[in-house]
Amino acid sequence: MRFSALALLLLAPPAAHAGEVMPQAAPAPLADVVRLFNHLPYGEADPASLAPVPSLPGCILVREATYDLERLLAAARAEGIDLGAISCFRSIAHQRRVFCAGPDNCDSVGGAALRARFTGPPGHSEHATGYAIDFAQRGTGCRAVEQCFMLTPGGKWLMKRGPDFGFELSFPAGNKQGVGWEPWHWRWVGRSSDTGAQAQAARARFAAAQARFPALPAVARPQTKTAAGTGVPAAADARPRGRGDYAISISRTGAAILLASSATRRP
Fold first, then answer.
1. pLDDT tens-digit readout, 33-54
2. What is the rounded CA–CA span in Å between residue 87 and residue 95?
3. pLDDT grade, residue 183 (50/70/90)?
4. Rounded (5°) CA angle 40-170-220
5. Which is nearest to 42 in space by CA: 209, 251, 197, 234?
6. Which terminal residue of the chain has fewer beta carbons within 10 Å of its beta carbon, N or C?
7. Residue 102 β-bridge partners
């Protein structure tokens, strides 16, 4: 079935142009969040909030995340584990190039859906937030972004120690979000004791994901006081009640919208 270009563009989310930076707007209420190929929508980080990671050339993250990442890398090195990074912050324009790499990824419904199994469509990748990183284990036989990463010393170490430094595994094995298992992909939300503004912003950014599709292992959210004096996770304070099935995953129609929008057209 064909969709008219006008109808597709009316349905499509606002597109990010190559040089345009999308602000980190407050997350939509959970009942309003719609997934595209099972991926949740994410805006692009403010460039002023980003900083290079000193020990990982080419890796850029939100500044506060770099501090915890440097501590994580140092702790791993102290145990003989040399962790590297394959990807850190990626702009939406860059994500479009990554997603559309290959002969069929952005030219057909089936190709785009298959690509989305392990790569977020532009505007739907955690990497755009500046909080996500794809780790790699140096000096092993496991190639980058392969599930064998979980069996490397670095993969095992992250499963035990990652949350101690504010990092959690976004897409664990068997996740209900329907995204492929990515043992290399971790997002920063701040250590459980971190109540700083940027950590709170990161938790708010991923509140929809954590509420319905929890990270595992995950960073324990700090407790906040309610009027009655009971403790509840800070990220859950603004969660609407009574509608848990908030996320709608779209596939065929979503693919047509994806292929029609200027945010995801082949560059």
1. 788 899 999 999 999 999 999 9
2. 11
3. very high
4. 115
5. 209
6. N
7. none
Compute the C-alpha angle 54/56/57, nearest 5°: 85
From the number of C-beta atoms within 10 Å of its C-beta (0-12, 13-18, 19+), residue 19 rates as exposed
Query: Residue 76: what residue type?
Result: A
Q: How far apart, in whole angstroms, are the C-alpha atoms of residue 263 and residue 121?
A: 9
Beta bridge partners of 250: 36
Q: State pLDDT tens for residues 159-171.
A: 999 999 999 999 9
**Token pair 């606002």: residue:** 14
What are 74-78's contacts with CB under 8 Å, separation 24+? 75/161, 75/164, 75/165, 76/154, 76/157, 76/161
Which structure tokens are listed for 9?
Answer: 């563009």
- Say which DSSP state 174 is in: T
Residues recorded for the chain: 267
